[in-house]
């Protein structure tokens, strides 16, 4: 993370901690809290929330030399990016875990990669990891698509294996067979030849979210006056 916080797993840490966590901050002056996303409510150990940090080498704000009103945009961003007591909101999902009695931290994904379906939080990473094992799926990326009733639903972009045509029912039955709760299932499938990628080769989820939003808008009949 460029904004600060370095972690380390000491050599004498339990093997499980080295395998399943990012360790602990390297500085005793670092403070790390796990907050319920979008709030300043600290979550108990073992619950996944937003990783927020404060310390000697974590930024305390973004600086803007531009005049008003542009500088006001940065001030507004700072208000969103930091808690009232100065913790930086990393945008990472994390939790406090104990491995053989050793207290450490793990990264569970990115906050923007969580689908908020009517208040139920769905981990995109979990779905993608499971769906990658489907015999008809070569590549998969799951994104949130807007929904007027629930806020968001899941949409799976699938690159099928040659000759296969996986449909929504295929994926849902596969997830059901692995004990995945129904509310987590994707509710739309888009078959594509390749997943869109950024210039540096990362999967471009922003493009997929924009694409499915545009398609849904086109499919929705225009309201008549």
Describe the 3D structure.
The protein is α+β, with helices and mostly antiparallel strands. The protein has two domains: 105 residues, Luciferase, Domain 3 (Luciferase, domain 3, Roll); 102 residues, GMP Synthetase, Chain A, domain 3. The strands form four sheets. It has a four-stranded antiparallel β-sheet with strand order 3-4-5-6. A three-stranded mixed β-sheet has the order 9-10-11, sandwiched between helices. Strand 9 and strand 10 form a beta hairpin. The longest helix has 15 residues. It is globular, with a radius of gyration of 20 Å. This is AMP-binding enzyme C-terminal domain-containing protein. It holds the Pfam family AMP-binding_C. GO terms for molecular function: medium-chain fatty acid-CoA ligase activity.
